[in-house]
Structures are given as C-alpha cells and as structure tokens.
Amino acid sequence: MSKNKRQIKLGAFLMETGHHIAAWRHPDAQADGGLNFEHYAQVARIAEQARFDAIFFADSVSVRDTNLASLSRTARADHFEPLTLLSALSVVTRNIGLIATVSTTFNEPYNLARKFASLDHLGGGRSGWNLVTSSTESEALNFSFEQHPDHAVRYERAKEFYDVVAGLWDSWEDDAFSRDKQSGVYFDPDKLHVLNHRGKHFKVRGPLNVARSPQGWPVVVQAGASDAGKELAAQTAEVIFVAHQTLEEAQTFYRDIKSRLARYGRQPDHLKIMPGIFPVIGKTEAEARAKFDALQELIHPTVGLALLSNMSGGVDLSSYPLDRPVPDLPETNGGKSRQRLLLDLARRENLTIRELYLRIAGARGHQQVVGTPESIADQLQQWFEEEGADGFNIMSPWLPGGLGEFAELVVPELQRRGLFRTEYEGRTLRENLGLPRPVNRYVLAATEQRATVAAR
Amino acid sequence: MSKNKRQIKLGAFLMETGHHIAAWRHPDAQADGGLNFEHYAQVARIAEQARFDAIFFADSVSVRDTNLASLSRTARADHFEPLTLLSALSVVTRNIGLIATVSTTFNEPYNLARKFASLDHLGGGRSGWNLVTSSTESEALNFSFEQHPDHAVRYERAKEFYDVVAGLWDSWEDDAFSRDKQSGVYFDPDKLHVLNHRGKHFKVRGPLNVARSPQGWPVVVQAGASDAGKELAAQTAEVIFVAHQTLEEAQTFYRDIKSRLARYGRQPDHLKIMPGIFPVIGKTEAEARAKFDALQELIHPTVGLALLSNMSGGVDLSSYPLDRPVPDLPETNGGKSRQRLLLDLARRENLTIRELYLRIAGARGHQQVVGTPESIADQLQQWFEEEGADGFNIMSPWLPGGLGEFAELVVPELQRRGLFRTEYEGRTLRENLGLPRPVNRYVLAATEQRATVAAR
C-alpha cells in the first residue's frame, strides 16, 4: 500500500465493564471495572498493541438516580473521573492517545487548559479533550444551578470557553524555556504572552502556568450533532465522535460537516469524523448473533425502560405500553439530537418501546454490527471509502474480552486490506491522526507582520 | 522500641527542582523538573524507599508575572497540575501517601470530591487533600473575579466547601456494591445517600458518582495559620503543614491547635502538626554550610527581592534600600499569616531586606537546618519530643539529590533512635499516619438511632 493512502482511524471508547447495559453480568466481564485500575490498564494495553489511535472516555458529573430500581442493576453509578484515570494510564502506555470528556458547563477554562496541557506533557503529546456541554438536570443540581442553562446559552458559553482554553495553550512559545544554568535565565520573557480575555462569560488574564505542550494544543474532540453543535465543531473540532444508524445518514452528516470547514479556513482532512460502532464478533454470523442474544437476555426490563428514558433526554416512557410502537416524544431542553435520532430509528423500523430499548441497550443509538471479522471489516471499509467516516470509535460490548476480540480478529483483517496501520506513524496523537500542529498565535501574528512589512 | 511508641511522621514537600529559589541552577538539579515525569517518579521512589508518609505538592493557579525579570530567572512558572501528576505517580508507587493542594476558591466541590475519591481508589487509599483558600490577585484574575474575595468570606466558603465534599464522600456506604452477576443486583439502593446540601455558597444535591474510597475520606490537610485558618483546621484538618522559625513558636502553635480540638469532640492525636523543614546536610557542619552558601550565591538580587515581595502578600519592597532594616509593611488582604511571620523574623534578628530575602530564599519562612545528619536529627527529635511537632514536611533544597541525602543520611539516624518507622504500618495513608477511618455519617446515624431505641 502507498504510504500516503488514507487509512481508517480507530478510537477505543471505554466504559466501565463495556457498552452493553448488561455487560457487567457477562461471565468474562470485569464487574468492578469502573474503579479497577488494573482493568483499565489491561484494556489500554490491548488497544495500544492493536495500534488504536486513542482510548476515549465519556463523562457525566452525577448519578442519575431517578430510577434506583434500574440504576442498581447497572454498572453505571460509580467510576473513575476520566482525567484522573488517563493520567495514570499515561504511565502504562507509550503511543496511544488519551482522550477525556470534560464539560464546559461546570468547569473553569483555566483549570481545564492546565489539566489537559499537564496530561499532554505527561504522555509526551497524547492528550485530547472531548468538549461537551452538559444537559442533564441531575448534573446541574450538583453545581448550584437551580435549573439547567438553555441549549443556546450552553453553546455560546462553550465557544467562549474553547477560545479561552486555546488562548491559554498559546501562553508560551514552543522555545520559551532555555533553562540555562550558566546564565541563570530560565525562560525568555519575550516568549511569554498574556491572554487578557474579557468576554461575556469569562474574564481570564492568563498566562497558563504550564509550558506549551508537545502537541501545541491537545487534540480537540466534539460530539454534538445539533446545528449549534455542528457549527462549533466546524470551527474548533479536530475529531468528531458521532452516532449514526445508516450509511446514508453518516454520509449526509459527513458532507455537511466537511462543507462547513472552508468558511473557517480549514481543510477537510483536518477534522476526522468517527462514528461509534458497537461490534459483536463471531467466527460465523450465527455465533455472533448467539453472543449478542446472550447479552440481551441479561437485560432486566426495568433497566431497558430506564435506559430509553435517559437516552431520550429525560422523557418518561414508563406509562406507555411496552409492546406498542414508540409514541411521539415531546421535545425537551435536554439533548435534542439524541431524541431525534431515537425517533427516526423507531419510525424507520416501526419498533415498539421494548424493541427500541433492546436495540439501543448496547450501542445507545450508535451503529450495531453483529457478524464475522470479514463482514465487520466490509462494513467499516464501505463507510470509510464511501465517505461516511474517517474512522470509528469502537464501543466494545463488554470489557476486556470484547475489545480483545476486535484487536485480535478485526484489526488484522483491516491491516491485510491496507486500511489500518501496522505501526504508529508518529509520537503524538496529532501525528497519528494526521492533524497539523497548531502554530502559536503570537508567532503566527509576528510572522504575518514581518511578511506584510517585507511586501511593502 | 515499643510498637506503640509515638513516632515522627514525614512528608516530602516536592517542588519542581527543589525549594531553594536557585535550586534549578544546582549542578545536580533536574532543571526541567517541573514538567518531567521521570524526575518526579524518581523523587517519589526515593521518598517511598525511605518510608516517608507522603509526598506533597503545593499549588497556585497563575503565573506571578508582575516581575518578569525575576520570574524568568526561576523555575516557578511552569509545572504539572498536582492532581494530574499524583494520579500518574500512584502507578509507580505502592505505599506512599499522595497529597495535593487544591483551592476551594476556584473549584466546585463536586468536581473536587470526585477527583480525590478517584485518586484514593487509584492508589488503594493513599490520597490527601490540602484544603487552601486562594489569596493572590494573579489567581483571581484567571477566574473571572474582578477582585479577590475578602479573607473572611474565603474561609466561610472554605468551610461550606469542606462540608459538601465530606458529605459527598459519604454518598455510598462502604459495602454498597455487591456486584452480583447471578442476581443482577449491582448495588443496594438503601446504601446510597443523597446529600441535598443547600447552603449560602453551594447547592449540591449529590450523590457522588464514585464508590466510598478505601480511606472513607481522603486525608484532609490544611496550612492556614491565621485565627480563621486555625479554627477551620481544628474542626476539619487531620494534618497541618505549617511554617515556624523557633521551637517556642512551634510549641505555642501546637498547644493552641491541640486545645481547640476538644470543642469539636476530637482527640489530640487525630490531628498531626507537621512544620516545614528545609535541611542542608553535610558530613560536617562546615560542609553543610559550604553547600548552603554555594546555593545562596546562585541567587540573582532581582530574584531575591521579588521573592520577598511575593512572600509578604504582594507588598512592593523595591523602593526601599536593600541594605537597611525591613520597614513596616502595610497589611494587605492577601496571606496575613505569612506577612506576620516575615515581619517577626526580621524584627527578631534585625535583618536588612537583603538578609531577609537570603534567609527565606530556601525555606520561605520555614525552619532552615544546616548541619550534619546527627545535628538535624537532634533538632527534629527535640521539636518532636517537646511537643512542637508530630512530624515534619521535608523541603529539600534541590531535587532529586537533596531528598536523596535526607533519605540516606537523616532517615537512618532517626530510625536508629527509634523515632521513625522502618516499615509501613499499613496499606493506607490514614493507617500510616495513625488517623481513624471516618465512619459513614449515615451508618453512624442509624447506629445511634438503634442505640437510642434499645435504651428506651
């Protein structure tokens, strides 16, 4: 294969005991995985040996305890804070990217910029920030909010938050620190820059108390699929994790996002679109199906119903008959894009509530692929080559075994087809993803100024 | 020695390249230590092999760039965020405590409770939180404050912050999680508790999304020496890191703090007082003095003056003559206790500004001990036996060598005298410090209720 051939990017989306809601009951699952460092170390090593680009953690800052009967039958209530965990995982890995979700709604940009820059230094240039806004009431109530901020305000704040964080990451020029013992000069004051941000939501002076990190900026990831989310992503994201059910839907989204980039002066391949994929792998189609059915049988109806309610942005479906088609859902302030996604799916396939909750129990609105390594590779290849995706975020049904199977069976198949790397291209997450390293804004401004003067 | 004999507790207060302001220029210092993980891993291993109770990091959330000429000659402007670093260090250590400073002024209690609980799970019960309030303008300006909150308000908020954090740490009873694959029950809903805190500064519902940690609560550390600080410590702290220049001062503080405990129903030995000690160690007194002088000679006058200004809470001394006695300092809103400490020192010894900055260049107001392993052990023994201290926070002049010398020379001397452990007593920081594990408040309340009913 050509060295410059476009290849699939792979993220390992890790979640406690796995993505299937009943994963923790799987005989081979690590039931206490959410707070077991050795479990995550093992999973991270599996992903790194398979040459995944990154491991990725979602996040929420609450226990969603509105339905305790359901919650107490899942492994979702207790887990490591992602940045704490990734900092530790940086020590037991060498090449794989480390992407954590942190909400702009409940944090301060200075703290966030600092933590991700620290993690980037720690791992030698492997950190990534999944920028999200928070939309659940249970989270708002842990942060002195009386009610959740409006969708539009959340995004406005998110954009300004991003601007501050990126500005702080440029506080120091890359070569600011000479640390010359002889002269006694530790850094060059001319290469330190004060941000002096004064906006609607934040006033942040800077500079950051961390040197510019190996990647310049940690990789910025986003997941929002609403129009506001897509526009913010086109401006700022370098990776998008997204949920699609069909190739057509994926292609529409892909075209939409890539077409928005030009207006921000960005190239199409500088934003990687990576839909989530929930793979159940068998030596035969029948074996794969049997594995999936065995997992589905572990779902208690109480759990399935509650999951559906959560995934639809807080809408309560417990009063509707389980075996009748999904009713019209009233639109709420919470996650609009997920509501639409679920409704579209139910309409398209005329699903009952029970069928819908079984459908999303694993993939939660993402694409489920149940099949052989070859058939799964076929599907990834098609989505990739027909411009539905630049890569995939692999959501293993259970951990560690589910990821192990993908690494042992599907990755080699992709490699045989020349669709996936056999060795890391670079040292940093940016290098492996094929993303440019941002030039420091102050260096850029000075360069442009010199060019203007020279042109006179 | 008796198994129950009271012994010295030791913390290793780590700081980039060491505590001396010119440490980074020392021939054996790791000049880029502040952002070098291998450096910190080496230092943490040295401390653990010597059986230190904990490593400890101070923190600030700004670059104090008011005097760039000075700052650019120090290694203080860039370093890891402490929790990020300690999470990584948890992986390369097994027994030593991991204490990070995090300000209550610029954080949310839910985020903080979660991070420290996560770190406690990560290290198997070794985390500690040094609770501080922030008093510098440079920090306030990074967090959308127009000016810094008043001293009294900061402490009021800190107490409420602590109450919320401790309450969140009790969200789950210790045995809440059964994770029984057969029955499908992951946790017992009756053992989950909602805090529902509604106070003046915070409204936090809870529960925390992390199981109760190995220590129940991470160890709570404080450093405030003002009256408000001391009262808060008596209520809530389990360790106090403090700065003293004389034994008498240390004894007065020790008696004061210990006498305040009874009114909160606490026992004197459940709060460990650990003054900072800046040791310069030589085989002879002359060698130790020569080592110290060599370090002092590396201080640029610009650096010394600026340090003094910072340490006195932002008071500008650059207009006063260097070689005249320290003038009266106007009291500012920032760190009152540190201003008083410096003034007392200057008065007591009739120091000039230059002499004062040279004096604090290393220890920054803490006790400097320059001598042989025996004479340093003598002094620690005296302070310990005459109730000036329960232990010490060792502030090595430069790293890693300075800590290495303490570990190799002073620790064995303390061990020979039966004053320091030769093996860790327990698995957790609490066990090693001899601190009780807090009983979950909800379990305690239920126990008390049963006792009341039984007594009727």
UniProtKB/TrEMBL annotation, chains A, B:
Keywords: Flavoprotein, FMN, Monooxygenase, Oxidoreductase. This is LLM class flavin-dependent oxidoreductase. NCBIfam families: FMN_nitrolo (TIGR03860). Belongs to the NtaA/SnaA/DszA monooxygenase family. InterPro entries: Diverse_substr_monoxygenases, Luciferase-like_dom, Luciferase-like_sf, NTA_MOA. The keyword Transit peptide does not apply. Residues 21-390 form the Luciferase-like domain. Pfam families: Bac_luciferase (PF00296). Coiled coil: none annotated. It comes from the Bacteria. It comes from Paraburkholderia dilworthii. The keyword Metal-binding does not apply.
